[in-house]
Structures are given as C-alpha cells and as structure tokens.
Fold each of these.
Amino acid sequence: GQNIDQPTEMTATEGAIVQINCTYQTSGFNGLFWYQQHAGEAPTFLSYNVLDGLEEKGRFSSFLSRSKGYSYLLLKELQMKDSASYLCAVPTGGSYIPTFGRGTSLIVHP
Amino acid sequence: SAVISQKPSRDICQRGTSLTIQCQVDSQVTMMFWYRQQPGQSLTLIATANQGSEATYESGFVIDKFPISRPNLTFSTLTVSNMSPEDSSIYLCSFSGESYNEQFFGPGTRLTVL
C-alpha cells in the first residue's frame, strides 16, 4: 500500500528482541493490523490496535501511536520459526478493509 | 474461529483460458474478500464479495476480468478470465469478523499462467 511504510528486510539472532516499525497515513483511522506470513502460506493474524499504547500477547507485542501515524511489532525471545514476512495493514480512507504494506522479511539466524 | 478453504490449491493454465477459484467458509460470514499477492509483493485487494449483490471492485480491477459470485454466506468464487502470464499470482480469499478487528485468510491458490 502506498500509504504504509515498513522496512523491507531485517535480520536478528535467535533469542534476541527485534522491533519492526510501520508508519502510515490515512484519514478516518479504523485500527492497525499486524500479520505474519511464512513463505508459501497465507497470512495469519497477530494483532489489532485501535487505541494508543502497547498490547502484549505472549512473545509478541504491538504498539500504536495514532498522533504519529506509527506502530511497531516487538518480537521477544526470537526463535528460528519466527523467520517470516510481517505485514502491517491499515484500513484507509475510512474503510474497514485493511490495505497492506509491502511487508518486512525477518530472518532469524542462530 | 471459522475454517476457510480454497480450491484448487494450485494450477498451471494456458494463456487465454479462465480459472474459477472456490472459497468455502464453515460458518456464515458477512464480508468476504478476494486478494492477489504477486511474487515478492504484498496483498492487493481485488474486490469485496457481497451476498445478494454485485461485488465491489477496487481501482484497477474490473468485473469482466475477475467475475465474482457470492451465492450464500459461506461460499464465493473468483474467476480469472482470459489469463495472461501477468496473472500468475497467489489468490487468497478472506473474511472479517463482525467487528472488523480480525481478518482470516484462506490457504491461497497459486496460479501459474504459461
């Protein structure tokens, strides 16, 4: 999506913490989604933020700042299986249907 | 959560032919969507499949190329018509929960057009 920006690729070490940032522009904010997509598989839902702040769900947390048009996905205690593409998605223009960013390919190495 | 399936899972087709992809959800859902994911790219929404009315297409997608059916609240089809190699992509169906705060995807159909 042209209004959603996230890094193309990141690498991290097993056991470490990684933060994947996403900036967006939209009118009529209706929440922000994070999805995980392993190669050759469909995206799976990770989180949905509609209010500012941090939402924690196990090893994954997602943060939102609506005033800054900014979100991040925080992955703790990285495992090899976390190697995947992470997609930030925002409904734009007042819609409820998410527009997807290009995704961040995360590579976790030993 | 509901289970969503698609078929075929993959196909290889000749230029100029058409392929219909089926999407089945095991419970009734209001909103169903069709996305395309071209190699190395993110997901692009093709259209929203509305039950009982014509689909709503996004900019750049037209009904003649991607006709959609939605005969009931558990099923939809997407046809890729008059295919060209540029249509080679993964096609995914999806549905939202009632409050739109979660979206589920089918396993995708990997289409290769020769």
Amino acid sequence: QVQLVQSGAEVKKPGASVKVSCKASGYTFTSYYMHWVRQAPGQGLEWMGIINPSGGTTSYAQKFQGRVTMTRDTSTSTVYMELSSLRSEDTAVYYCARGSVYYGSGSSSIAFDCWGQGTLVTVSS
Amino acid sequence: DIQMTQSPSSLSASVGDRVTITCRASQSISNYLNWYQQKPGKAPKLLIYAASSLQSGVPSRFSASGSGTDFTLTISSLQPEDFATYYCQQSYSTPYTFGQGTKLEIK
C-alpha cells in the first residue's frame, strides 16, 4: 500500500537547520509530486512547497523562500525538506504529502491523498 | 495569496445530526477545492477533491458542493468517528492555502 514514512522528532536551537526525510513506498516515486505542509501547535495547516521527484524541480511558498530547500533521492525514493535559520516560530509538525492529480470533465485538480505521519521539530534554546 | 475562510470555527453537534461547514475563497477558484479531516495527533485525511468528488473509501454520508468562491461540506448523519477538525484547501494556485479549520465537537 502507499506509504510515506518520515524521520523522527528533532530538537534544534535557534539559528540551526533541520532536515526532515520522507520515504515513499507502494507506488512509482517519480510519478507524483511531493508537498510539504506544517502545523504549529494548536494551529492550522500551512503549505510550504513542492518538489517534482522526477526532475527535482521545486517551488516554495514566498514565506519560506531563502530558508527552505527540498531535495530528493530517487535511489531510495526519499524526499527531504531542510529548513535553516530556525526560530521559535518554526516549532511545528512537518508533514510530507503526495499530490495526486484528479481528472474531470475538461479539467484536472490536485489533492493530497497520502500523508506522512508527521515530524515534530522543536526550536528552543 | 488566496485566503480561505471557514465557518464556523467550532461546532457542537450530536450523533445522528446533519452538519454543514462553509468555506469561502477570497477569489474565484472554480472547483479547485479539497476537504480534509484531521483527528488529534494524526495527519490529515483527504475526504473530498475537486469540490464535490468523494475520495475512495470515504463514507457516503460525506458530501460537498460549490464552485467559484463558496463551498460547503455536509455530513448527513454524524457518527462518533466524525468528531474531528475539518479543513478546506484551494489547489487553484500556489501557495495552496488552507482554511483555519472547523472543530467539530460532541454536544
């Protein structure tokens, strides 16, 4: 079955970087874009960006431009999200989510049909 | 960025009730609207895509409609497992923004 398994929780100091991994299985890794979404404690969902596992191209939310880097390793079907210059406001659960394209009459739509279990990143001095 | 606004932010209801959650986009997004359910400590789960299409495996008591800027999610007869937080999300343009969530609680 389709599965996304993320790396474990991290505790980082302000100013440090964190790299979260997301290993995909049960489908053709290069056929689906991967998104990253985060959720601060008690808050809503925030889209961070997207990576095309096939070519490695990325697109990031303006808010994270310059601080986030998404990469992939096709040999292990794993995507990575690295966030630098961490501050306390970056404390959150970080999710990878597979983007599926749904085709309807004359149009297509994207939705996140499979999610990783989440990785808690705590930023604290 | 497209702003998504859900109402209400929280809702108390009983098992068997029919409930409706509303989501409004700050500009027209055609039918590029998804609904997710999230339970505490868990990842979100896709319920509805393209405004009204039920994701495989999701019970038929869930339905949704809308186009343009106004959308609704309806649960026809609440079951105990439906008490959770619901989010709408637009996939019209990046950044793919979410609503702030609607917490559905047991009355």
